[in-house]
Input
Amino acid sequence: MTDGMGMGGFRDLAPLRQASPWAVMRVLLVRLGAFGDIVHTLPLAADLVAAGHAVDWLCEDRWACVLDGSSVIDRIHRLPRKLLRTAPLVQRMTVLRRLVRSLRAEAYDAVIDAQGLAKSAGLAVLAGAGRRIVHAPPRGRELSWLGADCSIRPQAEHVIDQQRDLGLALGLVPQGPWRFPLPPWHDERRWARGWLDAQGLGRPWMLNVGAGWPTKVWPAERLRGFTSACAAAGRPLVLLWGNPAERTIAGELVAHGGTLAPDSSIPQLAGLLSEGSVLVSGDTGPLHLARALGTPAVGLFGPVPLERNGPRGAHWRNFQAPGAAWERRDISKVEMGAISVEQVSAAAAEVARD
Output
């Protein structure tokens, strides 16, 4: 994957292993979520395994499917997020004790808190590893660095490079392209190809209509305009969605020429993205998954700088809307509509694959 496209060359990382200045370690990565952040941390895991270390991962159970089957993760510890929020206190404490016992039983040499929040820091401490490695502030927040054996002050601009820099604490110097050892998802790719063939879509363009923050979403008039422009140009367009509200938005766009994507899991979404010609999306999980899969994409950025989160490389283009940095909810403070349909259409046509 020297050109950054695809993930197939890194399903087996054995040829990449290198001599490490440290003894081989059993390392626990703590990155609980979310979707895109899990993807952003995979290159760090690839670096660790390439240096000869063994890597386990602690994440929320709903994101474990992003890692399950990865060639660089030996074991996934699942944090039952919903249960720990809603179950009776006695049940929550029982589940948490069981999780801590399973972490301590592994006798990790080091734990890397790649999240940098109080919750992840607490779990990293409870894991009982010999060394705890964290982000220094301001990347680390909520006093997550207190008591750590090593804190790495962020130097890199991009979030993926910031994560890879955590390997410096184990003597690793990040180098080479980003590597995303995702699961192969063979069945999901076949499912996606079958669904697209049944719709007569070939290798379509794809538009992701939602995002985790309202301020990251392209306005409805832009979504309609882009869908109509694709229809006028005779380009098949699949409308991706992730929750009922987004499904309603995507469903309304069908009248303008798009095809509604089926209800799908994250692995099935990966299958669809793998078969797409190009994805247009805000700064959210599907965009970052597309980058990891090698699918060309156009990223629409607003409250988070594209220099920090944007896909990089010849097959990706990004646009930055003006507005308040890190504003999560007030859409009046981020002008996502400043990114025009014409700009995005031209960029997508430039990077799209046959």
